[in-house]
UniProtKB/TrEMBL annotation:
Name listed for the protein in its UniProt record: Response regulator
Organism for this UniProt entry: Sphingomonas panacisoli
Gene3D superfamilies: 1.20.140.160, 3.40.50.2300
Residues annotated with 4-aspartylphosphate modification: 196
Pfam short name (any one): PhyR_sigma-like
Ranges where the Response regulatory domain occurs: 146-259
Family annotation (InterPro entries): Bact_response_regulator, CheY-like_superfamily, PhyR_sigma2, PhyR_sigma4, Sig_resp-reg_PhyR, Sig_transdc_resp-reg_receiver
Keywords: Phosphoprotein
GO BP terms in the entry: phosphorelay signal transduction system
Length: 268
């Protein structure tokens, strides 16, 4: 099997990581593209002593670290939306270290062990765990929101609501259909939406989110058992995507990161 064939299954998830790290689909994809170009240009330098996924993320991390060290905006010309996101990120980064955010995403969202995450960011496992703790504490301190949950499975909805409240956020409502979700959002405007895709009456959480976003902008996290349906590269994709069955830590990380780029929660 060629190196390209080994890496292909992991690319959608590296793109997810890139988007979560930068807060922008286009910006994140640029880093992924740069990593792939580096691999194509020098295939002999690709790490062969680790599994392909780890080597792929390692290459991405080297590109990210080098670019941000040499030129903070070298790969950033996404336009006004991305510039706004970067302004929000910069305001938050003044209050926390980017390295701790990388440790959080790599472990809680991408599922790497502290040891593997340490390999990716050049720290040992204990340091990674300390960075994750630091990131969660700082982001949770910075971000407070009112959350709308769109989920038709009662047990899952209760679990998500508990996670949300444990993080210190309020829940504006739990909707099980598209119409309920839109009505709830219009009645009590949320600062974050957590949305399943398949809803109780066979309506779509994607359509519910589109209806809500047509009225006002709000960060959205999609929750689905079929993430590949939203990671096609053929249309605008969700920045934050959680795969079912999910870990509580994954939901916490996604909520923290979604709110990380939301300017309404930046402390004065």
């Amino acid at each position: 099997m060629s190196l390209g064939q080994q890496l292909a299954p992991h690319l959608p998830f590296l793109r997810r990581y890139g988007r979560a790290l930068t807060g922008s689909q286009e910006h994140g994809d640029r880093y992924v593209r740069a990593a792939l170009e580096a691999i194509v240009a020098a295939p002999d330098e690709f790490p062969r002593d680790v599994e392909p996924r780890l080597g792929l993320y390692r290459t991405f991390q080297v590109i990210w670290r080098t670019t941000n060290a040499d030129d903070e905006v070298a790969l950033s010309d996404d336009g006004s939306a991305a510039e706004g996101q970067e302004a929000v990120a910069n305001a938050r980064l003044a209050r926390m270290t980017p390295l701790s955010r990388q440790a959080l995403l790599l472990t809680a969202m991408e599922g790497f062990t502290p040891e593997d995450a340490g390999y990716l960011i050049d720290h040992d496992a204990d340091e990674v765990e300390a960075l994750v703790t630091e990131a969660l504490a700082e982001i949770e301190k910075q971000t407070r929101a009112r959350v709308l949950i769109i989920e038709d499975e009662p047990i899952i909805a209760m679990d998500i609501e508990t996670i949300v409240r444990d993080l210190g956020h309020d829940v504006t409502g739990v909707a099980v259909t598209r119409d309920e979700a839109v009505a709830s959002a219009m009645s009590e405007r949320p600062g974050l939406v957590l949305a399943d895709i398949q809803l109780a009456d066979d309506s779509s959480g994607i359509d519910a989110v589109k209806d809500i976003l047509a009225e006002f902008q709000v960060p959205v996290i999609f929750i689905t058992a079929f993430p590949e349906r939203l990671l096609t590269g053929e249309r605008p994709e969700p920045t934050f995507l959680i795969t079912k069955p999910f870990q509580r830590s994954t939901v916490k990380a996604a909520i923290s990161q979604a709110l990380f780029f939301d300017e309404s929660t930046i402390p004065a």
